[in-house]
Amino acid sequence: MSVVSSQPARSRNWRERVLGNAAFRFESLLVLATLTAVMAFLSPVFFSVSNLLNIVLSTSVFGVLAIGMTFVICSAGIDLSVGSIVGFSGVVGALTSANLGLPWPACIVGCLAAGAFAGWVNGFLVTRAEIPPFIATLGMLGVARGVALVLSNGVSIYGLPPEVVYLGQGRPFGVPAPVIVLLGAAVVAHVLLIHTRFGVYAQVIGDNEAAARAMGVRVERHKVMLYALSGLLAGLAGLLFAARINSGEPTAGLNYELTAITATIIGGTNLFGGRGSVIGTIIGALIMGVLQNGLNLLAVQPFYQQIAIGAVLILAVWLDRINSREGWRR
Amino acid sequence: MRMGMLKILVAGASALALTLAVAGSASAADKPLYGALMKTLANPFWGAMEKGVDAGAQEVGVDLFMQAVESDQAAEPQLNTCNTMLEKKPAVMITAAISSTNLLPCLKRANELKIPVVDLDGNLDPAITKKAGVDVAFHIGSDNQAAGGKAADYLASVLGKDAKGSVLVIEGLSGNITGAKRAHGFADELKTAAPGLAIVASLPGDWDSLKAANITNDTLQRYPDLAAIFCANDDMALGAVEAARSAGKDKLVVIGVDGNVNAVKSINAGRLNASVAQLPYLVGMQAVETAKKVLAGEKVAEFTYVPTLVLTKAALDAKSDPLLQYVK
After folding, report:
1. What residues make up the domain containing A173?
2. Residues near B67 by Cβ (< 8 Å), separated by ≥ 6?
3. Is A235 contained in some domain?
4. Which of B5, B79, B102 sits opposite A323 (nearest CB)?
């Protein structure tokens, strides 16, 4: 089982050096393995390369959101606006090419910039206006969705540049492009969270904001960057969403913030801050992907799928509670 | 102490396995498998469509693999479900897409796998599918334009050809093609059927009964002598009729579209005046029957419009129309 030491990453073995000391929750990997085994046992189609890739593909959009969420949550914040930002950024990206006729890089930049901007506004509201994150981002949830609907007139904007569509539908070396984007983002985010000052400070702020301030961390500036990062990743998710279906949909990403938070928490990030793990988050997202895929293959009604996902969330956190009672600090 | 954790995990896993083994019962392997991807089951219209697809599958003797997503807004989950369904290699994919674009990548892949694609309830736009290079075997559904027209004809028959007065139209979700077609069909036909009736407002009710009720209340403030309300679906019509009744406007003619269970109840209770029934049950059934023809190599029409039926208290009491059996 993972042992979280309170010392910085002065690592002794390769595992700690690569994965960092804030290792993911081992139980979540156990849950993933068990689920996979159960599904493989129940459906012969489940354990094929094409279906496994299909699972990661389904996970890609909310997986990217969950990565951003990991940073915000481990700093003891929350970002409820990411689902709306998916719709907002996708519409902005689609407008740059479909309405303004700009070349394809503008579409990508448009998505990412729209997301980062919305995230920056969140950060500004949280730090400068001192609005609690729950409320600031809840407001942004409404505003971003509304702006997406206004910009698009409530209609999906079909037809993105082929280069952008490739990001969502292409299969370099047989692997769906969104899967590569997700894994790339995960690797970068993991390094950022564990091996850079940026990530460590985020966790320190989440653990004890006053102590972080006393240490000389510029907490406000750091928080703005964390929310902007979450927004940027939501913009990336919006780009993937739009590219997958070749259109900017104003209703894209509805309720995805809850999926992203669930994946993050299942992965072992502490909802009250101080501890976060990108690897754990990816495992959490995969647990939900496997569950959804398996239940779909078994033709289980979607109503039951929601029950199953809720139950897994509770199970994962319960396991964590048992562990912390056994002396796992934080 | 570690045992406690493992126990919970094992208990959880076995509970899940057991539930799934019961829920997803295996089917006979010798019959061809038809895939049907619906929008949502949390709506009487789609519930009836589902029953029709089911009945059609039983009638033509095929196995059915039917899935839906949690809501009719879940565009990406539906795409994921569609991809998952392809893993099962069905003989045909009968799909009711949430938007005209969200399933296109999956349908394209179905084309590559030589699995015919059926557009259930006309959610795909032929112009867009052609642009995307997706080949649709056939579209089946109701003619929404004609449904709106029938509502206008009914209104003219109740109030008279020379009636004068103001009419409120409550549209569907703004930007949704189905709602727009129904509203246009109604407005176009009303011009010739009863030129004295003027549409004073045409507002989006977002398929939401409460929103329709609010719109009705607001409009009644301004036009207390409103003669009729046409709503692009039954849920909104039910909201409108309740709002009109509580405002004391019992004479107000309210018409919906869909012919769903709740609308039939309201019509029988003498509240809602009429609903243009779309017969989703029949649409679902015919979709499966026609899909079988396609697989047998027969030529089928690109568009099949399933007839609609104006439900009124008189029609429901008379029980004479054979199409009534498909009103579920």
Report:
1. 23-37+46-325
2. A296, A299, A302, B35, B36, B37, B38, B81, B84, B85
3. yes
4. B5
Print burial letters for A137-154: b (CB count within 10 Å at least 16), e (below 16). Answer: bbbbbeebbebbbebbeb
Q: What is the 3-state secondary structure (H, E, C) of A194-251?
A: HHCHHHHHHHHHHHCHHHHHHHCCCHHHHHHHHHHHHHHHHHHHHHHHHHHHCEECCC
Query: Using one digit for the tens of pLDDT, what is the confidence trace for B197-256?
Result: 999 999 888 888 888 998 998 899 888 999 999 999 998 999 999 999 888 898 999 999
Residue-wise pLDDT tens digits, A47-56: 888 889 989 9
Task: Tell me how many degrees the CA angle A104-A170-A232 measures, rounded to the nearest 5.
Answer: 55
| A9 occurs within a structural domain | no
Tokens of B105: 């990548």
**Domains identified in chain A, total number:** 1
| Closest CB to B5 among A27, A156, A305 | A27
- Residue A193 in contact with residue A278, Cβ under 8 Å? yes
pTM: 0.80
| Domain-located, residue A15 | no
3-state class percentages of chain A: helix first, strand second, coil last, to nearest 5: 75, 0, 25
Q: What does the pLDDT read at residue B119?
A: 95
Closest CA of chain A from B35, distance in Å:
10
pLDDT(A304) > 80:
yes
Residue B200: which H helix or E strand, with range? Answer: strand B197-204
Q: How many CB atoms lie within 10 A of CB A324?
A: 12
What per-residue confidence (pLDDT) applies to A255?
87
Residue B254 region, left (φ>0) first, then alpha (ψ -120 to 50), else beta?
beta
Confidence band for A216, pLDDT divided at 50, 70 and 90: very high
Higher pLDDT, A317 or A325: A317
* E strand or H helix that includes residue B174: none
Burial class (CB in 10 A: 0-12, 13-18, 19+), A24: buried
Residue A26 phi, psi dihedral angles, 5° rounding: -65, -35
Which CATH number does the domain housing residue A125 bear?
A: 1.10.3470
In a mutational test of the A interface, the residue from B101, B134, B173 whose CB has the highest number of chain A CBs within 10 Å is: B101
ipTM: 0.72
- Residue A30 resides in a domain: yes
A51-105: per-residue pLDDT in tens? 899 899 989 999 999 999 999 999 999 999 999 999 999 999 999 988 888 999 9
Structural domains in chain B, sorted by start: 30-136+280-306 (3.40.50.2300), 144-278 (3.40.50.2300)
Question: How many Cβ pairs within 8 Å bridge chains A and B?
Answer: 141
Q: Which of B1, B42, B105 has the CB atom closest to A326's CB atom?
A: B1
